[in-house]
Here is the input.
Amino acid sequence: MSFTIVEPAPARLNRSELAVPGSNPKLFKKAADSAADVVFLDLEDAVAPDDKAQARKNIIKALNEIDWGSKTLSLRINGLDTHYMYRDVIDVIEQGGERLDLIMIPKAGTAADIYAVDMLVTQAEDAVGRKKRLGFEMIIETALGMANVDEIAKASPRNESLHFGVADYAASTKARTTVIGGPNELYGVLTDPDAQGERLYHWGDMWHYAIARMVVAARAAGLRPIDGPFGDFSDADGFRAQARRAAVLGCEGKWAIHPSQIDLANEENTPSKAEVDKAQRILKAMRQAQKEGKGAVALDGRLIDIASIKQAEVLVKKARQIAKG
Ligand code: GLV
Ligand code: MG
Here is the structure.
């Protein structure tokens, strides 16, 4: 182990994160009653410029009046390059009470962006005597943000998660996409001819690098990596396949831009019973070996190392969190 200890962000379930436009208050109650682990109330790209001020008011009202139960609540503020952002922070902290948990910072480009928001949030919180400190979620969705992802991840003790914003990322990098967050058939590998001269074409995952890169930065800073939107909400299988790819790389949740995607995201980010059972058996075998003073542990004829024990612990902890709701 390194002498550097990575402190994990506060443990929260983040399997699904539902996007709700602040300009559409009819959706707020439904979001509060949904199965989403996290709801983010949006002031940014889902809200037209003329509706920003009203959306802010709607959100402040909803924070004060709606029963959000045990949901984690986030606010997506506008970008730092707009004149909306300071008022998003100030008005919501001054008038929105204590219910909000997180602020989502879109298009995070440099560590200084996070520092600037931290300064503003800290002043506003101190001025109103807010008891609960707001955490930060950063969307990595520009070439600049991806180039600085490590510094962004470590920029504030408020940081809790990194999110891959594939739509803006594609625009920023000029990637050729067809469906938001889905694959592109042009990104594939043609195999060499086999004995019969046949060649196969395998689609690849054009988002592999970006998600894997973000996962590394997030985990190195103790944050949760979360996969962003999948645009075609009529394609449940496509959503599941993308959520699964991201989860395999280490993400622990995915956005839902439509209520129909909440259960899909929850299911794909919940460890299966077989996985949890296996993890529990690993931990049991380890405890037994410790009792017997043995260093090495074997299970089902395979040696278990420290890494597999740690993974088992993470999995069992997560299963407990899910069971608690
Ligand atoms: C999310 O904000 C995205 O741009 O994908
Ligand atoms: Mg975006």
User: Anything to note?
Assistant: Residues 271 and 319 are 7 Å apart (CA to CA). Residues 274-324 form one domain. The chain has two domains: 16-270, 274-324. The longest strand covers residues 16-21.
